Amino acid sequence: MKELEKKIGYFFKDKDLLRTALTHSSCNSDGKPFRKNNERLEFLGDAVISLIVAEHLFKIFPHDSEGDLTKVRAAFVCDNSLAEFAKKIDLGKFLILGKGEMNSGGRERASNLEDAFEAVAGAIYLDRGLDAAKSFVLRFMPSKIDMKKIDQLADYKTRLQEIVQQNPKERVEYVLVKESGPDHDKIFEIELHLNSNVIGTGVGKSKKRAEQSAARQALKLMGYEV
Question: Containing domain of residue 170, as a range?
């Protein structure tokens, strides 16, 4: 943990918070005594990162619309971006995994990296507050953001939502239709409903990833390049 602290430039007062942030839920499936895992910290970190990025964009783009700011924020807090941020600090190397998850490539799995990055942000927030979490998160934001290139980064859900919003009568809903697998290795299946019609389905290791997959399928069905 000391090596990771040096990498991120932050040293925890409460070391247990960092250990929990690094602990995958698969650790509780190996017959070991129950260990806290990072799922709750991931939930908190997701909200913390979204707030930090939103405030940052609000300040550096004082004249941009809510829609443009939403698009940029989505590009930097989507699954792919957070997983890439995690790779920059070799976060996978420090994950505490169950034997099965470790043997199946869990250190490189994007969903594990994304979740752990959110959990670390949540842990820093609990350890020393928002300013500390802000210092951690903003180091991954580029010094200059080219608004013209953001469309290439925006996630599928955001792109679909922007299209649907052009018609106020349309409503999009993501519906969980199936959940399978053990607790540490869940598979989720999501249906994407446009009003009452199913226009996409997606499967993933997390609900977020399944929703992204369903949105991508819907965009292809609607004739958009993805």
Answer: 158-221
* 147-188 pLDDT, tens digit each: 666 655 557 888 888 888 888 888 899 999 999 887 777 889
Q: Are 69 and 150 in contact (CB under 8 A)?
A: no
Of the candidates 149, 152, 146, the one whose C-alpha atom is nearest the C-alpha of residue 225 is 152
CATH code at position 129: 1.10.1520.10
Dihedral angle at the C-alpha atoms of 153, 159, 41, 23, nearest 10 degrees? -60
Last residue of a domain, one of 103, 121, 153: 153
Share of the chain above pLDDT 90, in %: 50
- What is the set of active-site residues? 46, 118
Tell whether 52 and 24 lie within a shared domain.
yes
CATH for 194: 3.30.160.20
Which is nearest to 210 in space by CA: 180, 170, 166? 180
C-alpha to C-alpha distance for 78 and 149, rounded to whole angstroms: 16
Number of domains the chain contains: 2
